[in-house]
Write a structure and sequence with these properties.
- The protein has two domains: 37 residues, YefM-like fold; 48 residues, no CATH class.
- It has four helices and three strands, in the order E-H-H-E-E-H-H.
- The protein has a three-stranded mixed beta sheet with strand order 1-2-3.
- The chain starts with a strand and ends with a helix.
Length: 90
């Protein structure tokens, strides 16, 4: 994991991150704790794309469940909560 103290960035500016970012994400340490992460633009776009793909996959799976009849409908939120409580007990 690439890390750099926030003080180093304050002292040198963003150029302090330039060499580290070449080998991966850079974690910025402030008060002895990781506080921020700097990503390359390419890595950022990859993460956004992966997030969109995961969201699409969840929607497709939900639609497949609906088409296959694996969806339960409830008349009220109370009925849903009651069903969930029964599942937890089982």
């Amino acid at each position: 994991m690439n890390t750099i103290p926030a003080q180093e960035i304050k002292r040198r500016g963003i150029s302090a991150v330039d060499d580290l970012i070449k080998t991966g994400d850079v974690h910025i340490i402030k008060n002895n704790q990781p506080q921020y992460v700097v990503l390359s633009e390419k890595r950022y776009r990859e993460l956004l794309e992966a997030q969109e793909e995961a969201c699409s996959a969840r929607v497709r799976a939900s639609l497949e469940d609906l088409k296959a009849g694996r969806v339960q409908r409830f008349a009220s939120a109370k009925d849903l909560l009651n069903a969930l409580e029964i599942e937890e007990e089982a």
